[in-house]
Amino acid sequence: MPDIVFNAHSGLRYLVLLLAVLTTLYALVGYFQKKPVDKAGLTMLRIFTVVLDIQVVLGILTLVTRDFFPQLIGHLVMMIGAVAIAHLGAVRLKKAAPEARTNGMLLTTSLIALLAIVGGILAIQRPIV
């Protein structure tokens, strides 16, 4: 069982990274076109956040079923930060008035979360891809 959970957690990182990169690129294009965030941008962020939540659950299961090693502290801190940023950005964008939803907010949210995820992966000395 521990290997199945660990392999799922390890493999899902590729989807998390892909969604983070796609959301960031989508926001970057919208930012340079000076458009407000549309429904597709909000949906991309929502999907990214949900997949990130699933990744956290798998990570917690992995944490309780496998041995702990010191590099996990940096991994945990970075990943908790990534999840917090993704959720805060998603809530802020959702609650903002439609004309106040900027792609700058979406870009900041997705880019900082992406950087935290990359840092968290590097903290446990795993390859990014």
Task: Describe, in plain words, how this protein is organized in 3D.
- With 129 residues, the protein is an all-alpha fold.
- It has one domain.
- It is 81% helix and 0% strand.
- Helix 1 runs antiparallel to helix 4, helix 2 (39-65) runs antiparallel to helix 3 and helix 3 packs antiparallel against helix 4 (103-123).
- The two termini are 24 Å apart.
Give the rounded overall mean pLDDT.
94
Helix content: over 70%
Number of strands: 0
Largest sheet: none
State the separation between the terminal residues, measured CA to CA: 24 Å
Number of helices: 4
Number of domains: 1
Provide the low-confidence segments as ranges. none
Reading the helices and strands in chain order gives HHHH
Globally, the shape reads: elongated
Radius of gyration, rounded? Answer: 15 Å
Structural class given helices, strands, pairing? Answer: mainly alpha
Beta-strand content: under 5%
Keywords:
single chain; mainly alpha; 0% strand
Brief overview:
The protein is an all-alpha fold. The protein has one domain (about 1-125). It is about 80% helix and about 0% strand.
Strand and helix layout:
Layout: H1 2-32, H2 39-65, H3 71-95, H4 103-123
